[in-house]
Structure formats: structure tokens, C-alpha cells
Amino acid sequence: MINNRFQRTSLLLGEQGIRNLQNSCVMIVGLGAVGGYALEAIARSGVGHLILVDFDEFDITNINRQILATDNTIGRKKTEVAKERVLQINPSCKVEIRDVFIDSSNVENILSLKPDYVIDAIDSLKSKCCLLKKLWQQKIPFITSMGAALKTDTSAIKMSTLAETQNCPLARQVRQQLRKEGVNLEEVLCVYSLEKSNSDAIISKSTSKILGSLPTITAIFGLIIANHVILDLSKSE
Predict the structure, then answer these.
(1) pTM score, two decimals?
(2) Distance from C-alpha of 66 to C-alpha of 222, rounded to nearest angstrom
(3) Measured between alpha carbons, how far is residue 95 from residues 25, 52, 53 in Å?
(4) Which is it for strands 49-53 and 94-98: parallel, antiparallel or unpaired?
């Protein structure tokens, strides 16, 4: 019997779709602005097993755009807060947490947990490329977020392969690195923005490497990613 908390989803995706989600394992790497909203939707879809990966703690600057960041969570581990949030939404969900920064020394160990799908919401270029390369090599289904900072146009947000991206500085850097590693860019699915921004001018005026971002844009990135994963996992084979 379908849990009543997922009744509305069941009416749309069918009982088999809900069962497929309940039997699925999704790994989310990066629990900040994009990853937090992806997590919220994945948890509410009824996915039965989540693996949450992040090394960071919340601070006050996260509050403008990260759904898990509040006055009460400042200074706390993102993974711990995220686990609590998931279990408040779906107490039946199995939640594993890993407080690590993904790099070449631990990526294989993390992926040995055998997720059915991986959501990449990592900010660091080197870490992101390390993860994406291994996911592609191991043929684990995944979707990755490109840059949401410095964007304001919601209509410019798209989902495509990495090879098709335009006007995204992060996507350009990821493409260059993965191409060197022999990764087929047509097999890397991502969410990005077509919006052009004068990023070089903005960055040059900044006193730090921190870039401005809106809660709306980062949330839409995360929700588009989650929507794709939910629909993909709910399909009957």
C-alpha cells in the first residue's frame, strides 16, 4: 500500500512509479544552494534511500539562497541538518551521510556505495571533474549542475548535454577538463543557464572570489535536476 504522504505523487506517476522511487538510492553530492533544493524535492518524492555527501558547515552567508540554512543551523554540519530534514519529511527513508570533500583519494570509496543515481551539486571545479569522470567511467546515471551565480533570467535555465552548453564559464572549464580526461561530453547531462553575464567585469570589481547569486535561480536549478531524476527513476523498465 502506498504511504498517504505520497498519494498526490502516486496519482500522477502511478503506484508502480512510487514503488520504483521507494526502491531507489540517490546520492546527492553538495548540499548547498542547488543541492539543498534538489534534496528537498527528492525527499518529498518518496525515494527510499539517500546518501548525502558534503564536508561543510552552514554559515550566515548561506541564508540568502540555501534552503537548509537558518539561524538555527549556523555552525552545524550540512549533512547532519540535511538528514534531519529528510527524516522529518519521510521517516521511512534510509539516510546515510558522508562528511567528506570529494577528491581522487576517496571518490571510488564513495561510489562503492552503489547509488542508482547521483546528483552533482559541487562548487569546486577539481572536485566536480573528479566525480564526473568516475561516474562516467563506472556508467552510474548522473546529472550535474553548472554555474547558477551571476544569473537572473529564469527563462534561460536549460537542461542539455555538457557538449551543448553556452555562455556558462563553469561549463566551459568542466568541458575543457573532461575532454582532456577522455570523457564523452555528449553523455554528461547538466543544468545550466544560457544567460550572458559580464562575469569578468563583475569578478574584477570584487574583493573576493565570492559571486552574487539569487535564491530563485539556484532553487530552479536544483528543482529541475530533481524533477529529471524523479521521472527517470519512476519509469518501469
Answers:
(1) 0.94
(2) 11
(3) 10, 7, 11
(4) parallel
Q: Which residue has the cell 544569473?
A: 151
Residue 134: what are its φ and ψ, rounded to 5°?
A: -70, -40
Q: Is the dihedral of CA 61, 66, 71, 72 positive or negative?
A: negative
* Amino acid letter for position 167: N
Q: Residue 94 in contact with residue 48, Cβ under 8 Å?
A: yes
Query: What is the helix (H) or strand (E) element at residue 80, kind and residue range?
Result: helix 78-89
β strands within 139-220, DSSP E: 142-145, 157-161, 189-193
Q: What is residue 103's DSSP assignment? A: -
Q: Which of 162, 157, 148, 156 is nearest to 211 (CA)?
A: 148
In whole angstroms, what is the distance from residue 117 CA to residue 71 CA?
32
Residues facing 29 on adjacent strands:
53, 120
Please give the angle made by the CA atoms of 101, 145 and 201, to the nearest 5 degrees: 95
Return the DSSP state at 226: H
pLDDT recorded at residue 201: 42
Q: How far apart are CA 80 and CA 64, in angstroms?
A: 20
The three three-digit cell numbers of residue 79, written as one number: 549533512
How crowded is residue 7: how many other Cβ atoms within 10 Å of its Cβ?
Answer: 10
Q: How large is the average pLDDT for residues 143-171?
A: 96
Residue 168 CB neighbour total at 10 angstroms? 24
Q: Where are the beta strands (DSSP E) in the chain?
A: 25-29, 49-53, 94-98, 117-120, 142-145, 157-161, 189-193
What are the grid coordinates assigned to 159, written together? Answer: 537542461
pLDDT tens-place string over residues 50-102: 999 999 999 999 999 999 999 999 999 999 999 999 999 999 999 999 999 99
